[in-house]
Structures
1.
Amino acid sequence: MHLIHRPRRMRADSFSRRLARETLLTRNDLIYPVFVCEGSGEQQPVDSMPGIHRWSIDRLIDHLQPLVDAGLQAAALFPVIEAERKDPEASEAVNPNGLAPRALEALATHFPGLGLIADVALDPYTSHGLDGLVDDKGYVVNDATVEVLVEQALVLARAGAQVVAPSDMMDGRIGAIRAAQEEAGMVNTRILAYSVKYASAFYGPFRDAVGSASALGKADKLGFQLDPANAREALREAELDLDEGADMLMVKPAMPYLDILAGVREISDLPLFAYQVSGEYAMLTAGVQNGWLPESAIHESLLAIKRAGADAILSYFTHKLFSGLPQT
Ligand code: PBG
């Protein structure tokens, strides 16, 4: 053979492979999602997410300390609300003394440089497990829900979240939150829009972790989250959030939706994040724990998400991988 093109030449030695490498995963790329519960001294394992726990505020601080020391830039907080505090109106979501605001205050005091991302959605707080207020037919009503989300976002920002992250998929919530923040003089509170959030089966373990699975029962979220079959609709959602004033966009889940991530990357210059969700974590962890997959599959999954266009990734593997990643 007389070949001009032999792409394997560059792969022949470590030095040229390294020089040609296009994507590098570093400590600055990971955001750690954490579950916080009431009490003190609590460390409750999440059965469907081996290695992940619900922490009381004091233990969460202990858990995060070494990561923050090693350069963790941001954590995303998810509260586990006690069943007796849930109601159909999600009243607890706007309680300034609720679990999420108390946790944010403690974390902001203890870790002044850490980015704190607070989820804005009503599902941890509703007795029916849906992300918004429902009418008598069980339909999640949009505009009334947005009013509560706006209030929730202000409460979370006042408690210390520099970033609020609406994960509810209501129409118009980014614009409404942005307007309320301007009104309140919170000009630097950033909005991370879960712009493209699919109605995905991969959220199963998360719903166990925060206890919304039992509340949700057989109901589903198809009336507001995106149909997994759709890609054009995803781009439209991203464009709307851009127009409404989002600072960062997000695609979720991550690995089953890399085409969407790459597509949103093309239409937007905003920082773009991806959420490697609980089901992705459970799947990879099961593979590794059973000896069916080498542990390097975890790093590969994150590298693939970054290569597809993510600037940063929310990943439950942050804790496990962190010390092995380069610091930049
Ligand atoms: C709540 C919310 C969910 C996740 C993040 N915020 C669950 C859902 O929409 O049912 C999922 C995260 C994960 O699976 O890791 N709105």
2.
Amino acid sequence: MSFIDDLINPGIDAIFGIQDEYKKDNRSSKVNLTAGIYLDEDKRPPAVMEAIKLAEQKLNKEETTKNYLSIVGDSNYLQMTEKLVLGDVDSSRIVKIQTIGGTSALSTGFHFLKDNGYENVSLSDPTWANHKQIVAKQGYRVFTYPYFDSIKNFEIFVDHLNSLPKKTICLLQARCHNPTGIDFSKEQWKIISKICLEKNLFPFFDSAYQGFADSLEEDNWVIRYFFEQGHEMFVAHSYSKSFALYNERVGALFVCIKDPGLSEVVKRHISKIIRVNYSNPPSHGSSTIKYVLNDGSLYQIWIDELSKQRNRINDIRKRFADKIKPIFGKELKDQIMSGRGFFCMLPLTKEQIHRLKVEFGVYMTNSGRISLPGLTMDCIDYVVQSIEKVKG
Ligand code: LMR
């Protein structure tokens, strides 16, 4: 008899669990289309960016202490990140919190909102698997809307927004929607902003792919627009992809408020949440990024590397869309071409996805999401042929 006799097996993680299965596969032909990570043409895991290597050299020379950061993190890192994410804005309206990647920005933000009377969340269907877990863990009531249909017929989303109870949190992805790759247009965002203001809905932006659609400035247009419109809102930002700093876990939570006089009390509330969870954030990743953001030449090196990754992913997207057209038709090709960022989705059944894994060593998430950087020149035809075979 053990205290864990009744433990129910929760299953593997929808993304990293499948990637673990990929890692254990011994076939040399195996293909990793699981987690959103940048792989180079040799399928190597993301290289450390040159800008980061140079910044780390500086950091190693100049760092004099490994002392704790404050609970809310490094103020210069946060100031520079705020500028990158929100542009030149009235900083007194923004409470800035350093977080452990985008995930803890989301979970800390949702924790705070739950503590303060928010009960409902609106999520796209599909959305990033972890979004669902984060809000479920905190006991939110979830309202979903069909994402592909809403993009095609925006009225569906307008009706959804209009049907939500007051003070529902709308979790929205700034660009490169995960898992579909498809985003609302600027015109649609303007309507969404208006409805959120009129219906007292609370925007919570997830910004994990800044720089992977068009450019750093352009990709967070919607966040800047909402801020200008006077929304109170949250923004969760992740640097995992844009600096390829996946395992350093660097992110930020921005709480945009109307009354700067309340910023200290908000900061104290959030500090309480962080203090009992992880006490204070780690410093290596944020200190490294700080060097890049504060140094013109390192910044330029970073922008060039980021653009290279973006352009390569866009090339892969185009190549893949062309190749799957004979299997799925023009509509899907156009849909994939209209997307941006790491992901696209294929309308495959669970059984077909399982066969791709077991028979061909082609690993993707069970939703049919494909992480495009894994489709290197030497495996793209193999993947397309495997898909053709399981489609029958
Ligand atoms: C993904 O969606 O694959 C990435 O964001 C990795 C993760 O944390 O799930």
